[in-house]
Every structure is written in structure tokens, then in C-alpha cells.
Request: fold
Amino acid sequence: MDPSPVDQSAPNQPKIVIVVLNWNAGNETLRCVRSLAQLRFANYKVLVVDNGSTDDSVDRIRSNCPGTAIIETGTNLGYSGGNNVGITHALDQGADHVLVLNNDARLDPDSITRSIEVVQMLGDKAGVVGFATYHFDRPDVLHCLGLNADLPGGSFYTPSPEEMAQSTFLPIGSSYGCAMLLTRRLLETVGLFDENFFLMHEELDLCARTRQAGLAVVGATQARVWHKGSVSFGGEGSPLRLYYLFRNWPLYAKKRFAEESRLELFSEYMSQYRLAIVDRALEHLREGQLTHAFAVLAAARCAEAGRWGKKRLSLGLRLQVIADILNLLVRAGGRVSWRRLNRLRWGGRPR
Reply:
């Protein structure tokens, strides 16, 4: 069944608020906000949430985009906390739906229209609508339609070209966090992002809670977005990204086991998690990436202690991680030589 076309006159369109999070990336955010002027959808507003930037981002955005609303959090609340501030404001302003958009993402002019068509098809079951995410530097190559919801932390779901062409939407485990449309019904029923995650996996968690509430999580095959990826992290393989990626696995897993009343399996999960942490840390040590190994082991220490939210490493925890690294080097024997250790690249002090 083809969706009814979305009425292009603003009075008959649902009200959309696009929340764009900024953290010390004023130029990227400016490019994102300016690109939204090409949208072929009338009833939308842009809200920039500045997440405690320490540069001149806010001044640049205000001077170059004077009509854009800006909220300043005053501190870095992470992806989850910063977006929650924007989502809450959007709902207070009467938004029917909220589009969470990364500042390094660029929307196709018809993307909101296509996503709203999917919402209309789903009716009262509409929860989260993800976008078809394409590589920024390879604009014809699909990166993913969303994420699978498998443990430990999701994997990319990339349908075939035939599936994309034949379907208006497809079920997904989770929307990819760079662009996700959240319905008011979802937000009022399920709530906001869990701020314990701070960064990484919060979209997986929100989508899992959405399904648990009986609402749909789908990817709109014709709602296209182009995404650069991990601009705020400093790259996909940065130590900061690795920390949140590995630390948040157990948090996500424990919540899912609790939903299914299978918490007795969590201890088994943690046993496998510890093995995965050791393997990954050794891999980084063999490559001479001491900062990366430190990040992975620190993530495990924090997860075991239930230290969620923003990354904060005490001196005592740092010393424990250093001891973990030395123990791994001893256990690895000849696989990681001391000569190799002398050539390890820190790439900056652990944060």
C-alpha cells in the first residue's frame, strides 16, 4: 500500500522540531543548520543545543543564523543528556515529532516528508523512524538503514538494493543515532534517552524500550541522510569512543535481561565480556596502542563498578588499569615483548 502524500501546506503538516547538538564544532553545526534550508517541508523549527562548548561556537551560530533557537546547557551532558534537553523543550513548544540530527549529517530535501509518510502509515503504532544513512564521502553507498538489536551492542543493518527499492519501510532493531524521528506518543509513553549511557548505545536502548512498549521501530528506506561519523569523538577508532563503546555494553545488556526477567544470565554475559575486554586490550597492545588499551580496560573497570554517565577516572582507578596492563603483558609472554613496550605510542594522555 502506497502512503498518502504528505500535505505540503504548513497548517496541515505535523510540527517537527529538529534538534542539533553542538559541542565545540561551530563550523560543522553551521553547515548542518544551513543545509536544512533546502528541506521541502514547511512546518519545522531548528533547535541547536550547545553542550557546554568552550570555543566560540554559540557566538558564530548566533551571528550567522540569527533566526535559529539556541539552548546552552552550560556543561557537556553527552549525546543523551544534551538531546534530552532539546527534546524536552521541543515537546514543551508543541512538537508533534522530534528529529534528533547529528551536526555532521546532511538530510535529503524530501527526507522529512518521506519519514512522516511512514509515521502516517503506522498510525498509533509509530514510535521511532530511522533514516537510510549513506556514506558522506561515497554518497551512493548505503551505510545502514539502522542497527540490529543483538548483544553485545548492536551491528549495522544494511538491506539489499532490492529490499530498499521494494519497501517504504523495514523493521529494524534500532535507528542509527545520526538521524532518528521520535514521535510524541513514543516520548510520552517510554520517556527520553537514558543519561547513564552519556554516549553510545542510548539509541539502541531507547528503541528496545520502544518495542517493549508495543510501538514500532522502523527504517524509512526513502528518507535519506549522509553522515560523516564520529566527528565529536575524533574518529571511529578513538580511545574516547572505545571507552564508551565498551563501558556501555553491560549497561545495555543488563537492562535487556531485566526486561526479559532473565537477570540470572547477566553473570554469564559478564564472564564473556571480560574475555572480550582482555582480547581487545591485548590486540591494542600488540599494535603499540597503549592509550587504546587503557581506554578499553578503564571501560571494563567502570562497568564492573557501575560508574555510568560522563567519564570520570579517579587516581585509584587509573592505577588499577595500569596494573591490569602490566598483568596482561606478563600473561602475554612473548606475544607482547618488552622491546615492543618501549615503542608503544600513547597518542596523548588518558582522559
